[in-house]
């Protein structure tokens, strides 16, 4: 095997096996830093041996065995470090007495579920949860994570170091929550994955509307989580939502990269396979008990992709689903999107009245979503001067270049100057006016 093929082989294996490898090492030794170091050492050893010997039949087991040997060697050299880890292991054993896995002829036990819940522990800041999830379960290095969130590598490195220190000092356990805890802890994990996907679907800053690498990673990680928790209907609902929304990615911008709203998208460019998979998962998410928020959002997304066009979309059913969502997980974003759906069902005046009720909502201040939605409905009502004022207000708070250009074109079409103030970065959840 030549060196180039060996490197490619290691990279492919590492991408696929990294989360399991790291999770198994953390469970065995109780320390995230040690696990990352010896995992990197194992990859370095693979690059040395595999060009001569070929990629082994079970590369994941080879990497795990090599990493564990290197961890044991380090602990033998550093007795103080070993003593500290022994205390951590004792804590872990009290929290979860399952023995550490030993690789052999059987498949390597999948410990990633423990790592999901440790990375997304509520004691950690949300930005740290997201970064750790991408690094530990996504196999991304610190510069990659930093690029995804458009911060300097040193800044992201500090965030990750602080998060790992918090895990160590607070003795956050690497374990799956007990059955009576799962209902409280799982939403936090899902929220992290949803934030990653949302930033991929509609980037908060930058020159591109979408960050497809982020969207793909969120979908990949959610697939893993669903395999690990196959009976959790909200995990199925989140994956369904992601697939049904992401299915439209190719139609959301034109050949020049300009934003194309749902009304004008070429539905023939939507990904039929993802739509079919998403629709199947919606049924799974809504069957067997009361619906959860992600299942309801997925059902809304399914109604969008099932319609032949915007005019024939089942807007009454979408409004009814937003009513359910508002009871399950009320938020300004839900209220805003419901108002847009009401405008499609009952006309722009009805939707505008609901948006007017949100004008003093503090969580929508300094963001472009509400003025952009109001501007569109005012435009449709022929209230040009008011619409232009709202477009200017939206332009003052939008940082994504593609969205900014779209709003400027709408303003220019009304006879405005198409210019807005400098924006302010805001991380977003649900979007106003489905794109």
UniProtKB/TrEMBL annotation:
One Pfam short name: Sigma70_r4_2
Domain RNA polymerase sigma factor 70 region 4 type per the UniProt entry, residue ranges: 119-167
Transmembrane feature ranges: none
Alphabetized InterPro entries for the sequence: DUF6596 (IPR046531), RNA_pol_sigma70_r2 (IPR007627), RNA_pol_sigma70_r4_t2 (IPR013249), RNA_pol_sigma_r2 (IPR013325), RNA_pol_sigma_r3/r4-like (IPR013324), WH-like_DNA-bd_sf (IPR036388)
Residue ranges occupied by any DUF6596 domain in the UniProt entry: 185-285
The organism's place on the tree of life at top rank: Bacteria
Keywords in alphabetical order: Sigma factor, Transcription, Transcription regulation
Coiled-coil residue spans: none
SUPFAM superfamilies, per the entry: Sigma2 domain of RNA polymerase sigma factors, Sigma3 and sigma4 domains of RNA polymerase sigma factors
Residues in RNA polymerase sigma-70 region domain copies: 15-79
Family per record: Belongs to the sigma-70 factor family. ECF subfamily.
PANTHER family, alphabetized: BLL6612 PROTEIN (PTHR47756:SF2), BLL6612 PROTEIN-RELATED (PTHR47756)
Protein name per its UniProtKB record: RNA polymerase sigma factor
Native species: Pseudonocardia benzenivorans
């Amino acid at each position: 095997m030549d060196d180039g093929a060996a490197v490619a082989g290691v990279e492919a294996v590492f991408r696929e096996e990294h989360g399991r490898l790291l999770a198994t090492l953390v469970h065995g030794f109780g320390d995230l830093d040690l696990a990352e170091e010896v995992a990197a050492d194992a990859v370095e050893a693979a690059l040395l041996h595999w060009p001569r010997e070929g990629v082994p039949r079970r590369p994941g087991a080879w990497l795990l065995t090599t990493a564990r040997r290197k961890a044991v060697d380090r602990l033998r050299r550093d007795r103080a470090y070993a003593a500290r880890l022994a205390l951590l292991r004792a804590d872990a054993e009290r929290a979860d007495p399952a023995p550490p896995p030993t690789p052999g002829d059987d498949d390597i036990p999948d410990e990633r579920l423990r790592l999901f819940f440790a990375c997304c522990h509520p004691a950690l800041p949300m930005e740290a949860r997201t970064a750790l999830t991408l690094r530990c379960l996504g196999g991304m290095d610190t510069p990659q994570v930093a690029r995804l969130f458009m911060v300097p590598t040193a800044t992201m490195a500090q965030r990750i170091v602080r998060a790992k220190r918090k895990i160590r000092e607070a003795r956050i356990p690497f374990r799956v929550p007990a059955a009576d805890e799962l209902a409280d802890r799982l939403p936090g994990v899902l929220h992290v994955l949803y934030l990653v996907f949302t930033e991929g679907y509609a980037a908060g800053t930058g020159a591109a509307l979408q960050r497809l690498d982020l969207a793909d990673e969120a979908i990949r990680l959610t697939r893993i989580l669903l395999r690990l928790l196959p009976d959790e209907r909200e995990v199925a609902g989140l994956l369904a939502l992601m697939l049904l929304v992401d299915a439209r990615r190719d139609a959301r911008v034109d050949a020049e990269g300009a934003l194309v709203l749902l009304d004008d998208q070429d539905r023939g460019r939507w990904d039929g396979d993802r739509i079919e998979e998403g629709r199947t998962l919606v049924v799974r998410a809504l069957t067997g008990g009361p619906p959860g928020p992600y299942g309801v959002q997925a059902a809304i997304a399914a109604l969008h992709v099932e319609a032949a066009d915007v005019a024939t979309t089942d807007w009454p059913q979408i409004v009814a689903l937003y009513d359910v969502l508002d009871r399950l997980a009320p938020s300004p974003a839900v209220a805003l999107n419901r108002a847009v759906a009401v405008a499609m069902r009952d006309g722009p005046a009805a939707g505008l009245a609901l948006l007017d009720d949100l004008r003093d909502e503090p969580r929508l201040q300094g963001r472009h979503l509400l003025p952009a939605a109001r501007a569109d409905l005012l435009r449709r009502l022929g209230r040009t001067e008011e619409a232009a004022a709202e477009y200017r207000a939206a332009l003052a708070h939008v940082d994504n270049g593609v969205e900014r250009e779209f709003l400027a074109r709408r303003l220019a079409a009304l006879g405005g100057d198409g210019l807005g103030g400098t924006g302010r970065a805001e991380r977003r959840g649900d979007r106003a006016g489905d794109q």
